[in-house]
Every structure is written in C-alpha cells, then in structure tokens.
Amino acid sequence: MKKDAVIPRPAGRRGGPTLAAADAAKLQPILDRWAGVPGSLLPILHDVQAAFGFVPPGAVGPIAAALNRSRAEVHGVISFYHDFRQAPRGRHLLKLCQAESCQACGSRELTANVERALGCRLGETSADGAVTLEPVYCLGNCAVSPAAMLDGELLGRVTATKVHRLLQQARSAR
Q1: pTM for this one?
Q2: Are β-strands 124-125 and 131-136 bridged in parallel, bridged antiparallel, or unpaired?
Q3: Domain limits of the chain?
Q4: Domain 92-173 top-level CATH class
Q5: pLDDT digit of tens for each residue in the chain (174 aa)?
Q6: CA neighbours closer than 13 Å in the CB half-sphere of residue 167
Q7: Distance (Å) of CA 76 to CA 69, 71, 81, 87, 136
C-alpha cells in the first residue's frame, strides 16, 4: 500500500449514530419546516431540543444532510452553545452563578456543597435523574449574591441550606 493511500473506515461508522424510527418521524417535520431557509441551523436545533428535551446524537446526521453541512459543523454548533444539551436533563434544572460577584459571596463553596449533596458536578445530572446542575455566568442578581435559578425561578442570597430545602421540595412535588 502506498504511504498516502486512504485507509477505508470500518463499515457502519460513516453515518454516525442513528435515530429510532419514531424519533426520525418526530425530527422530519422540523427539518421540513426549515427547508430552504437560509441560516436555519440554530432555529432547527432549538426546535429539536424543544421536541426531544435535548439534541440527540442521532439527529446530527439528518440535520447536517438537510442543510448540506458536515456532521462536524452541526456538532460544533451544538457543543459551542451551552444551552444545547446532548443528553436529557433532569426533571429539575438548578443553575448556580459562577461570576465574580457570586464567587466573592461564597458561590464556590455553595457549588461544592451542592455537588456533594447531588453526587454530580456542574454540567451533569444526578444519578436519580432528578436534578441537572449547570453553571451560569451572571443572572443579573449581583446585589443579592450568591445567585441561583431553580426551574426558572431566580433566587438570591442562596445558602446551602436554602438550596437543599428547595431541591427537597421540588423533588417531592415531582
């Protein structure tokens, strides 16, 4: 074999992950809606995340094909924007501010305490699937740092005790 010869890939790797038929049927109307619309990658990804709760890895190939882009380009956009999830999130979403004002008021210690309590780190979901813990870099609530947001509700002067109580309430309410 010549040194510059291309080595063929193993069969099955070329297309990447695939979607189940039901999920592909759920994806197709989204792709049809945005067909031919310039600059539609972000709106497609938002719609896919709204439909599935995250952007499934198996959706990357069909999205890329519909837009005449590479899977790498689509994946690059998904991984660049923090709001796009590549795995399902927990039933509850806790965002802890990591900005300077909150750090000065104890957000690092708060984050470490919450990570220990949930058994997961920032960017992960607890093993029971109840809570996804995400970093955020300013909630605009600096006057009452440290700040957090639980399921869209802005919280100020957050303590570990307060967060644990709120999470316990959220978990029991399901």
Answers
A1: 0.73
A2: antiparallel
A3: 21-80, 92-173
A4: alpha beta
A5: 445 555 444 444 456 889 999 999 999 999 999 999 999 999 999 999 999 999 999 999 999 999 999 999 999 999 999 889 999 999 999 999 999 999 999 999 999 999 999 999 999 999 999 999 999 999 999 999 999 999 999 999 999 999 999 989 888 876
A6: 23
A7: 11, 8, 9, 16, 20
